[in-house]
Amino acid sequence: MIPYFFTQVLYLLIYFMIIFAALGEKNNNHNDDDQSIRCTIDKGYKYKENSAHHPQSRLAQRLLGGYCGIEIGPASYAPFGLNTIHVGLTEEMHPGDYKLYREHQIEVAGCAAEIDIGREADDLYGFPDSTVPFIIHSHVWEHLYNPLKALEEWVRVLVPTGLLYIVVPKRDALPEDALKPLTTIEELIAQYDRPKPPLSELQAGEHLHVFSVHLLLEIMFWYNQKHYPSSALSIVSLLELDDTVEFGHQITWRIHKDIDINKTEIKILM
Hints:
It is built from eight helices and seven strands. By secondary structure, it is an alpha/beta fold. A hairpin with an 8-residue loop joins strand 6 and strand 7 (248-257).
């Protein structure tokens, strides 16, 4: 277990020394030759008059614009405007979640994001290893039974130097979450080897975890300790408040694979 004081100090250093530099530069290290997916940027959203869709994230555009990636669990009222394949639950996979989420999007924005490929967020079967330049999702991770195994699956499909862009809700984003204790890394590790229950046994729309910035950092430390040097995560951006609706924490990780420990100049936090 990582001492609390140590991770707090690391958090402050990361927050003040890394984030501002990350905001200023777009990632130019993707290799278009690595892409094995095709996607379109125009999703054809037809918003109702005075709809409440949120502004696009300038950070996401700066880091991910121009590349073809995956958006997991897209929402019409929170468009990123990126070149993505929409991956998520279909009506056949989970009728309850599908209906709840679709009706909410239509109520808010007058339309719903269409799913291009039906997959569970933590099981991207059909996508080959190391083929996707970026994955982005917002307010998805807290719904997943096993967040750590989901993270491993996302890293699997991302290319070396690919980006994983995540937004998770703050504790007070929903009134019911404010009453729950923050999820700890020990809880996630304990859950790692437990079998995932069928989707039909999970309550539609339920938040299974309550994230914090501290937990996001501990997840990175856990991943790097478990997988280095075959793969590792480094921080590109870290925001206490996301740059759109401002009720979520945002983190972007760069993916490193097959690291040469004798030559690498990457500073991996473990």
